[in-house]
Amino acid sequence: RAGFEALAAPDPGHWPWPTFVVNIVGAFLLGVFVTRLLERLPLSSYRRPFLGTGMCGGLTTFSTMQVETLKMVEHGHYGLAALYVAASIAAGLVAVYLGTALVRRIRVFR
């Protein structure tokens, strides 16, 4: 994540693609891992937090998204900030849904 962000450090007046892409990929992986865990593996007290919060949480950067949004607002880019927050939430939800649907579809074909 940090390497991807270093390649394209966002200006407060531009879309922060590195954080956006990493967060959406992380949301997709969260959908895959959690669904697979809940449907295929025996439940345990450590697997869900490890995969969900640990691995996907380490990849995604909700706090970075908030800092970038605040910088946009501080520089007067209110519309961009609102669009970024709305798009991040909407795309994240779609990504989790698609990850979940993919795991369930693979299970049906087997």
What does the model show?
With 110 residues, the protein is mainly α. The chain has one domain. Helix 2 runs parallel beside helix 5 and helix 4 packs antiparallel against helix 5. Helix content is 80%, strand content 0%. The protein has five helices and no strands. The mean pLDDT is 81. The longest helix is centred in the C-terminal third of the chain and has 32 residues, at 78-109. The chain has helices at 2-7, 17-40, 47-59, 62-74, 78-109. It is elongated.
* Number of spatially distinct domains: 1
Mean pLDDT score, rounded?
81
Distance between the termini: 34 Å
Total beta strands: 0
Helix/strand order: HHHHH
Shape: elongated
The major beta sheet can be summarized as:
none
- Give the low-pLDDT segments: none
- Count of DSSP H/I helices: 5
| Proportion in β-strands | under 5%
Using only C-alpha atoms, the radius of gyration works out to 16 Å
List its salient traits.
single chain; 110 residues; mainly alpha; 5 helices; 80% helix; elongated
Write the layout of secondary structure elements.
Blueprint: H1 2-7, H2 17-40, H3 47-59, H4 62-74, H5 78-109
In short:
By secondary structure, the protein is mainly alpha-helical.
